[in-house]
Design goal:
Blueprint (H helix, E strand, L loop, with lengths): L1 H17 L8 H11 L8 E2 L13 E4 L3 H6 L6 E2 L18 E4 L4 H12 L5 E4 L2 H8 L4 H13 L1
Parallel strand pairs: 1-5, 2-3, 2-4, 4-5
Length: 156
């Protein structure tokens, strides 16, 4: 299945970046994307901070896809900065043997970056749902423990 997804993704990426402004009207590109989507996971590649135990954050590569100024202002500790527009040209800097977690402020731009990486064959990419804002609101690295405590309290 992974090889099929990679085979389907290659023409999509190639077409997307050679089609220029006529991309929206490119039937070949649309057909290739439809073929890829047929094999995509239902939840796409999104993951919530509450789903990641605190000890797993250090076992993944975290990529802040915002611009350098926003990254310098504040970011998830341990994150590297690759602006979403540069993600494909810099994809060789990312591992293929561990989870790569991409995020932006709210999840919109990182969703684009994540989709591009997944279309380029990187199935190990996840998108942090609700981005940096959601990460902070959920409790950061402790979001998973906090969510478990709340669930236990609710069940009592």
């Amino acid at each position: 299945m992974k090889n099929l997804k990679t085979l389907l993704a290659a023409p999509i990426v190639a077409l997307a970046f050679t089609a220029g402004t006529a991309m929206a009207e490119n039937e070949e590109l649309i057909d290739a994307m439809e073929g890829y989507v047929m094999f995509a996971d239902y939840q796409g590649a999104t993951i919530r901070p509450e789903q990641i135990p605190a000890d797993q954050w250090e076992q993944m590569t975290i990529v802040d896809t915002r611009d350098a100024g926003q990254y310098e202002e504040d970011h998830i500790p341990g994150a590297i900065n690759i602006e979403w527009r540069q993600i494909l040209e810099r994809r060789d800097e990312l591992p293929r043997d561990e989870m790569v977690l991409v995020y932006c402020n709210t999840g919109t731009l990182s969703a684009q970056a994540g989709l591009m990486l997944r279309l380029a064959g990187m199935d190990n990419v996840r998108i942090l749902q609700d981005g940096f804002t959601g990460f902070q609101k959920a409790g950061g690295f402790e979001a998973n423990a906090r969510a478990q405590e709340e669930a236990e309290e609710a069940s009592e």
